Amino acid sequence: LSAGTKMPRSDWKKVSSTYFFIPKLTEQTKIGQFFRSLDSLITVNQQKLDKLKELKKSYLQKMFV
C-alpha cells in the first residue's frame, strides 16, 4: 500500500512486515544466464542490423552516382 498525493510513499511498518518470495539460488542463476544469453543475442542482431544499414547506404550511393 502507498500513501501521499504527489510521490507515493510506502509505510515502513507495512514494508518491513511484508514477505517477499525470492527464488532459490539455482533458479536465480538460470534467470541470470537467460538474460545474459538474451543480451548476447540482441548484441549480435544489432551488429547484423548495423552492417545491413551500411550495405543499404552503400548501394543507394552507387545507384545515384
Please describe what this structure looks like.
The protein contains two helices and two strands; from the N terminus they run E-E-H-H. Helix content is 68%, strand content 6%. It has helices spanning 12-16, 25-63; strands at 2-3, 9-10. The chain is mainly alpha-helical. 0% of the residues are buried. A hairpin with a 5-residue loop joins strand 1 and strand 2. It has a two-stranded antiparallel sheet. The mean pLDDT is 89. The longest helix is centred in the last third of the chain and has 39 residues, at 25-63.
Summarize the SSE layout with pairings.
Blueprint: E1 2-3, E2 9-10, H1 12-16, H2 25-63
Antiparallel strand pairs: 1-2
Task: Give a brief description.
With about 60 residues, the chain is mainly alpha-helical.
Rg for CA atoms:
24 Å
Largest sheet: 2 strands, antiparallel
Uncertain segments are: none
Q: What oligomeric assembly is this protein in?
A: single chain
Strand order in the largest sheet: 1-2
Tell me how many strands there are: 2
Mean pLDDT, to the nearest integer, reads 89
Question: Strand-and-helix sequence, N→C?
Answer: EEHH
Helical percentage? 55-70%
The helix tally amounts to 2
The helix-and-strand class reads mainly alpha
Defining key terms:
single chain; 65 residues; 68% helix; mainly alpha
